[in-house]
Amino acid sequence: MITLYYSPNTYSIAALIVLHETGLAFRLIEVDLSNQALPDGTDFHDINPKGYVPVLELEDGERITELAVILSWLADRVPLLRLAPENGTFERIRFMEALNFIATEMHKANSFLLSPRIDDATAVYYRQWLRGPYEWLDQQLSTTQWITGDSFTAADAYAYFAVRQARHLGINLGDLPAVDAFMNKIQARSSVQAVESSRAALIDADCRSFPGMPFARPVLSMPTTLLPCM
């Protein structure tokens, strides 16, 4: 059985959504990012020296890190579900483009607003600057059912949490109708409903790791008012 190391209300949610989509058997191990510890007291750095979730541990003990890679691996595990286009196709290139754009321009970029050191004026600037990627997403979704075409893929699960987080961080997305329609549609999926009703989606989860410093021991404390985290 594969194992997902996760923390509530982080981008682990995207991996968990795709796990539910695949129907694969899995178990969850929650990571306390405030002290980088597992429930049994094990230092999470022993699992992932980067200090980030999610981590996917395979049946043979191999571990995969980096969410975009985890999502691709899960999608390829059940190819008939077409959670990712077939390798070697140009559609796969577009899928990889979407994953990388979400990872760098949404996921990582949102982390600026999670820093406990950011002042109000800088936060206002970043909220305006960070609208750009979501405007691209709105334009993309105005011509397709899902991000890469007419079929739901793992990229949509990734974008879902990015939008969810952006809204919570105060980035104004209210005038992006295609994004709104996308969120309404994806929230109707049973996989998303299963995750949102679980502990994994707790909006008040105590996630206090300091984005950008995953290697720190101990991890710097971060106010819970800056949730959700990465």
From TrEMBL:
Keywords: Transferase. PROSITE patterns: GST_CTER, GST_NTER. Residues 88-215 form the GST C-terminal domain. Residues 1-82 form the GST N-terminal domain. The keyword Transferase applies. InterPro entries: Glutathione-S-Trfase_C-like, Glutathione-S-Trfase_C_sf, Glutathione_S-Trfase, Glutathione_S-Trfase_N, GST_C, Thioredoxin-like_sf. It comes from the Bacteria. One of its GO terms (molecular function) is transferase activity. This is Glutathione S-transferase domain-containing protein. It comes from Pseudomonas cichorii.
